[in-house]
């Protein structure tokens, strides 16, 4: 499901400059004297798959990967800073568009180097509207419900002949006209399972695809097996499974199996997984599955609700990547960042289609396991050993903790420094707050898309505290700080 905003922290002032990503640098990369850019820094087969599926040249594919990475980083920071005023973001070429609900937030977006679009409804309002609309209509008629951030509205896809009935149901629920679009589709979504062939794991006579390696096993789709079901190749047991409602599962494997932080690219190699930061709407993503192999497309929406024959699943990632039965549970990547697990959809890899993915961080959090990563990432600090006072703890995705305690610590005027070492593959943030008038005000923050953060603040004497926020992903953290 969509991460709730970090509302417990009072933001005193918004950062004037959030991230200075250079789009000029993102479009560079062609070796001098050569017409073909260097692709050795990317996962084997990724650029070739983008050329095939997206109709790009090699130079265009490399430029797009670099641009998407820079813009998605900027989008993550803006979403955190704007909080309730944030209404979604999308990529169009080399430009990041960020929807906001008022002029003040629009100024923050422009100061960060993105294009602001002022809209009527925030993302949280749109999410609530989508849930209300989906619940108002008969499940058997709904293919999918999702938020379209570009139009600042909700879209409902329904079976042929059902548009009138669904439109009437939405109206009876008191939802304003024009806020929900009802569209008929030629094919209803289904789960991808029970097709023979490919690189897979098996549940009795059925086949699914491994999602991502996690502590002691792997995460995959919940519809592939219920809790207690056993698997083969590799052998394991479903310890956690949720479907419908969600579509995630965790399979614990035996000691003879070795979970590796990599994804099969079906081109004779693998893609190293280095984290699980969510990419922006419009970003390029690629999927791996045991039926159709490696295919690419873009993210079209987050927090989509989809109705399968077995029931409704909410909080999914909507994409235009193709998939087919047997790909269920497989991996969705943005570069080397894990995004989701193949749930289901419509269409196929001959004519194209729409595929939905269960966000991976929710699956990891539900199973209380960590993503296994393997190469390509930066080396995190080891426990923030340069700081004088240490703290540590553990958080689930979306959680927060005050350090070294809720009452804080007293300091004299001068410079306070702090650092945070979060779990690999997550997005943990660090805030410095000062007591003021019976409440806490944020005076400094580290809110990048990485698991590790550092903060430096020069201020007056008073009572301060640190707040650690698990923006995405779960696990144990360590940190430390030094006071004047």
UniProtKB/TrEMBL annotation:
Looking at the record, the residues that make up the Peptidase S1A alpha-lytic prodomain domain are 121-175
Superkingdom as given in the UniProt entry: Bacteria
- Quote the InterPro entries the UniProt record gives: Pept_S1_alpha_lytic (IPR004236), Pept_S1A_streptogrisin (IPR001316), Peptidase_S1_PA (IPR009003), Peptidase_S1_PA_chymotrypsin (IPR043504), Streptogrisin_prodomain (IPR035070)
Gene3D superfamilies xref list = 2.60.120.380, 3.30.300.50, Trypsin-like serine proteases (2.40.10.10)
Q: Supply the Pfam families for this chain.
A: Pro_Al_protease
- Entry keyword annotation includes Transmembrane: no
Q: Which residues form the signal peptide?
A: 1-28
Keywords from UniProt, A to Z, are: Disulfide bond, Hydrolase, Protease, Serine protease, Signal, Zymogen
Q: Family membership, please give it.
A: Belongs to the peptidase S1 family.
Q: What is this protein called?
A: S1 family peptidase
